[in-house]
Fold:
Amino acid sequence: MSIIGIDLGTTNSACCIWKDGESVSIPNALDEIVLTDVSPYTLGTNIYNENNSENAYFSPIIERNSILPCSREETYYNIHDDQDQSLIKIYQGESRFCRNNVYIGELNVHYPPAKRHECKMIVHFSYDMNGLLEVDVEVANTGKKYSALFEQSPGSLTPEQKKAALERLAQFKFHPRDSQENKALMARLERLYEQSLSDKRHYIASLIEAFEGALESQIPTKIEEIKALIEERISYISNSDWLS
Structure:
Protein backbone atom coordinates (compact mmCIF):
# COMPACT_ATOMS: atom_id res chain seq x y z
CA MET A 1 0.00 0.00 0.00
CA SER A 2 1.30 3.49 -0.84
CA ILE A 3 -0.08 7.02 -0.57
CA ILE A 4 -0.58 8.59 -3.98
CA GLY A 5 -2.45 11.76 -3.09
CA ILE A 6 -3.91 13.89 -0.33
CA ASP A 7 -6.77 16.30 -0.93
CA LEU A 8 -6.52 19.31 1.39
CA GLY A 9 -8.96 21.50 -0.48
CA THR A 10 -12.22 20.14 0.84
CA THR A 11 -13.98 20.51 4.16
CA ASN A 12 -13.62 16.80 4.81
CA SER A 13 -10.09 15.97 3.71
CA ALA A 14 -9.39 12.64 2.08
CA CYS A 15 -6.39 10.46 1.42
CA CYS A 16 -5.96 8.44 -1.76
CA ILE A 17 -3.93 5.23 -1.59
CA TRP A 18 -2.94 2.54 -4.07
CA LYS A 19 -4.06 -0.86 -2.82
CA ASP A 20 -4.32 -4.20 -4.66
CA GLY A 21 -3.92 -2.47 -8.02
CA GLU A 22 -6.66 0.08 -7.41
CA SER A 23 -6.89 3.67 -6.23
CA VAL A 24 -8.87 3.83 -3.00
CA SER A 25 -10.11 7.03 -1.36
CA ILE A 26 -10.24 7.16 2.44
CA PRO A 27 -12.31 10.11 3.74
CA ASN A 28 -11.11 11.99 6.84
CA ALA A 29 -7.90 9.94 6.92
CA LEU A 30 -5.39 12.69 7.66
CA ASP A 31 -5.57 12.16 11.40
CA GLU A 32 -4.23 8.65 10.83
CA ILE A 33 -1.22 9.82 8.81
CA VAL A 34 1.96 11.36 10.23
CA LEU A 35 3.41 13.64 7.56
CA THR A 36 7.17 14.01 7.76
CA ASP A 37 9.85 16.30 6.38
CA VAL A 38 13.51 16.95 7.16
CA SER A 39 15.18 19.89 8.84
CA PRO A 40 17.03 21.95 6.20
CA TYR A 41 19.58 23.21 8.73
CA THR A 42 21.03 22.48 12.15
CA LEU A 43 19.55 24.08 15.27
CA GLY A 44 21.59 24.53 18.42
CA THR A 45 22.83 26.76 21.20
CA ASN A 46 25.93 28.58 22.39
CA ILE A 47 28.64 27.06 24.57
CA TYR A 48 31.63 28.72 26.19
CA ASN A 49 34.91 29.00 24.30
CA GLU A 50 37.70 28.99 26.89
CA ASN A 51 40.23 30.18 24.31
CA ASN A 52 38.12 33.18 23.31
CA SER A 53 35.15 34.04 25.52
CA GLU A 54 33.86 36.50 22.91
CA ASN A 55 33.57 33.82 20.23
CA ALA A 56 31.16 31.16 21.51
CA TYR A 57 31.09 27.70 20.01
CA PHE A 58 27.91 26.36 18.41
CA SER A 59 26.51 23.20 20.02
CA PRO A 60 24.15 21.33 17.63
CA ILE A 61 20.98 19.86 19.15
CA ILE A 62 18.78 19.08 16.13
CA GLU A 63 21.03 18.18 13.20
CA ARG A 64 20.41 19.09 9.58
CA ASN A 65 18.38 16.38 7.75
CA SER A 66 16.73 15.20 10.97
CA ILE A 67 13.28 13.77 10.26
CA LEU A 68 10.52 16.11 11.41
CA PRO A 69 8.75 16.40 13.73
CA CYS A 70 11.80 16.01 15.94
CA SER A 71 12.60 16.47 19.63
CA ARG A 72 16.07 16.22 21.18
CA GLU A 73 17.77 17.24 24.39
CA GLU A 74 21.32 17.97 25.51
CA THR A 75 22.76 18.65 28.95
CA TYR A 76 24.88 21.69 29.83
CA TYR A 77 26.52 23.05 33.00
CA ASN A 78 27.51 26.43 34.41
CA ILE A 79 31.11 27.41 33.69
CA HIS A 80 32.04 29.80 36.53
CA ASP A 81 32.08 29.60 40.32
CA ASP A 82 29.15 31.44 41.93
CA GLN A 83 27.39 31.78 38.59
CA ASP A 84 23.64 32.29 39.06
CA GLN A 85 22.33 32.53 35.50
CA SER A 86 23.00 31.34 31.96
CA LEU A 87 21.95 32.95 28.70
CA ILE A 88 20.77 30.21 26.34
CA LYS A 89 21.00 31.57 22.79
CA ILE A 90 19.43 29.72 19.88
CA TYR A 91 21.00 29.61 16.42
CA GLN A 92 20.54 27.89 13.09
CA GLY A 93 23.43 27.05 10.81
CA GLU A 94 26.39 24.74 10.25
CA SER A 95 29.43 26.72 11.45
CA ARG A 96 31.15 25.68 14.67
CA PHE A 97 31.06 29.31 15.77
CA CYS A 98 27.79 30.99 16.75
CA ARG A 99 28.75 34.30 15.16
CA ASN A 100 28.70 32.66 11.71
CA ASN A 101 25.20 31.22 12.19
CA VAL A 102 21.75 32.82 12.24
CA TYR A 103 20.58 34.07 15.64
CA ILE A 104 16.98 33.04 16.45
CA GLY A 105 16.40 34.09 20.06
CA GLU A 106 17.36 33.42 23.66
CA LEU A 107 16.27 32.43 27.18
CA ASN A 108 17.81 33.76 30.38
CA VAL A 109 17.92 30.91 32.90
CA HIS A 110 18.34 31.67 36.61
CA TYR A 111 19.45 29.37 39.44
CA PRO A 112 21.04 29.61 42.91
CA PRO A 113 24.77 30.47 42.85
CA ALA A 114 26.74 27.32 42.16
CA LYS A 115 30.31 26.21 41.76
CA ARG A 116 31.65 25.45 38.29
CA HIS A 117 29.86 22.49 36.64
CA GLU A 118 27.49 21.99 39.60
CA CYS A 119 24.35 23.40 37.95
CA LYS A 120 22.87 21.02 35.41
CA MET A 121 20.61 22.40 32.67
CA ILE A 122 18.67 20.11 30.33
CA VAL A 123 17.98 21.94 27.05
CA HIS A 124 15.23 20.42 24.91
CA PHE A 125 14.51 21.47 21.30
CA SER A 126 11.27 20.40 19.57
CA TYR A 127 10.84 21.33 15.91
CA ASP A 128 8.13 20.63 13.32
CA MET A 129 7.29 21.08 9.64
CA ASN A 130 5.44 24.34 10.32
CA GLY A 131 8.69 25.99 11.38
CA LEU A 132 7.74 25.98 15.06
CA LEU A 133 10.70 25.61 17.41
CA GLU A 134 9.85 25.07 21.07
CA VAL A 135 12.77 25.39 23.48
CA ASP A 136 12.45 24.03 27.02
CA VAL A 137 15.14 24.37 29.67
CA GLU A 138 14.98 22.58 33.01
CA VAL A 139 17.36 23.42 35.85
CA ALA A 140 17.92 19.97 37.36
CA ASN A 141 19.12 21.39 40.69
CA THR A 142 15.84 23.22 41.35
CA GLY A 143 13.32 21.67 38.93
CA LYS A 144 12.49 25.13 37.57
CA LYS A 145 11.55 25.19 33.88
CA TYR A 146 11.81 27.86 31.20
CA SER A 147 10.15 27.75 27.79
CA ALA A 148 10.04 29.82 24.62
CA LEU A 149 8.43 29.39 21.22
CA PHE A 150 10.04 30.62 18.00
CA GLU A 151 8.26 30.75 14.64
CA GLN A 152 9.96 30.64 11.27
CA SER A 153 7.09 32.60 9.71
CA PRO A 154 5.24 34.52 12.46
CA GLY A 155 1.53 34.89 11.72
CA SER A 156 1.40 32.11 9.14
CA LEU A 157 -0.57 29.86 11.51
CA THR A 158 -3.88 30.68 13.17
CA PRO A 159 -4.01 30.32 16.99
CA GLU A 160 -5.98 27.10 16.52
CA GLN A 161 -3.42 25.69 14.06
CA LYS A 162 -0.56 26.64 16.35
CA LYS A 163 -2.26 24.99 19.33
CA ALA A 164 -2.83 21.79 17.36
CA ALA A 165 0.78 21.79 16.13
CA LEU A 166 2.12 22.17 19.66
CA GLU A 167 -0.12 19.37 20.91
CA ARG A 168 1.27 17.07 18.21
CA LEU A 169 4.81 18.17 18.99
CA ALA A 170 4.31 17.40 22.69
CA GLN A 171 3.99 13.71 21.79
CA PHE A 172 7.67 13.70 20.80
CA LYS A 173 9.01 15.53 23.84
CA PHE A 174 10.65 12.69 25.71
CA HIS A 175 14.05 11.04 25.64
CA PRO A 176 14.10 7.66 23.81
CA ARG A 177 15.38 5.95 26.97
CA ASP A 178 12.06 6.87 28.65
CA SER A 179 9.94 5.09 26.02
CA GLN A 180 8.05 2.14 27.51
CA GLU A 181 9.01 -0.02 24.54
CA ASN A 182 12.70 0.79 24.95
CA LYS A 183 12.52 0.27 28.71
CA ALA A 184 10.98 -3.16 28.16
CA LEU A 185 13.71 -4.18 25.71
CA MET A 186 16.42 -2.98 28.09
CA ALA A 187 14.82 -5.00 30.92
CA ARG A 188 14.89 -8.13 28.73
CA LEU A 189 18.58 -7.59 28.01
CA GLU A 190 19.34 -7.10 31.71
CA ARG A 191 17.55 -10.38 32.54
CA LEU A 192 19.54 -12.23 29.88
CA TYR A 193 22.74 -10.76 31.29
CA GLU A 194 21.85 -12.00 34.77
CA GLN A 195 21.13 -15.49 33.41
CA SER A 196 24.40 -15.71 31.50
CA LEU A 197 28.01 -16.44 32.49
CA SER A 198 31.50 -15.81 31.14
CA ASP A 199 31.70 -15.02 27.38
CA LYS A 200 27.94 -15.16 27.03
CA ARG A 201 27.57 -12.46 29.67
CA HIS A 202 30.13 -10.30 27.88
CA TYR A 203 28.17 -10.72 24.63
CA ILE A 204 24.92 -9.57 26.25
CA ALA A 205 26.81 -6.65 27.79
CA SER A 206 27.94 -5.60 24.29
CA LEU A 207 24.31 -5.61 23.11
CA ILE A 208 23.31 -3.47 26.09
CA GLU A 209 26.12 -1.00 25.39
CA ALA A 210 25.13 -0.77 21.72
CA PHE A 211 21.51 -0.12 22.67
CA GLU A 212 22.48 2.51 25.26
CA GLY A 213 24.64 4.26 22.67
CA ALA A 214 21.79 4.32 20.15
CA LEU A 215 19.37 5.70 22.74
CA GLU A 216 21.78 8.45 23.74
CA SER A 217 22.18 9.44 20.09
CA GLN A 218 18.42 10.19 20.01
CA ILE A 219 18.45 9.36 16.28
CA PRO A 220 15.26 7.37 15.52
CA THR A 221 16.64 5.50 12.50
CA LYS A 222 19.75 4.41 14.40
CA ILE A 223 17.67 3.28 17.38
CA GLU A 224 15.34 1.22 15.18
CA GLU A 225 18.27 -0.44 13.40
CA ILE A 226 19.89 -1.47 16.70
CA LYS A 227 16.55 -2.66 18.10
CA ALA A 228 15.94 -4.86 15.05
CA LEU A 229 19.42 -6.36 15.42
CA ILE A 230 18.93 -6.98 19.15
CA GLU A 231 15.52 -8.58 18.63
CA GLU A 232 17.11 -10.92 16.07
CA ARG A 233 19.89 -11.88 18.50
CA ILE A 234 17.45 -12.33 21.39
CA SER A 235 15.27 -14.58 19.23
CA TYR A 236 18.28 -16.75 18.41
CA ILE A 237 19.33 -16.89 22.06
CA SER A 238 15.82 -17.76 23.26
CA ASN A 239 15.39 -20.57 20.71
CA SER A 240 18.69 -22.32 21.36
CA ASP A 241 20.63 -23.85 24.21
CA TRP A 242 22.84 -20.77 24.25
CA LEU A 243 22.09 -20.06 27.92
CA SER A 244 22.48 -23.62 29.15
Residues 2-33 form one domain.
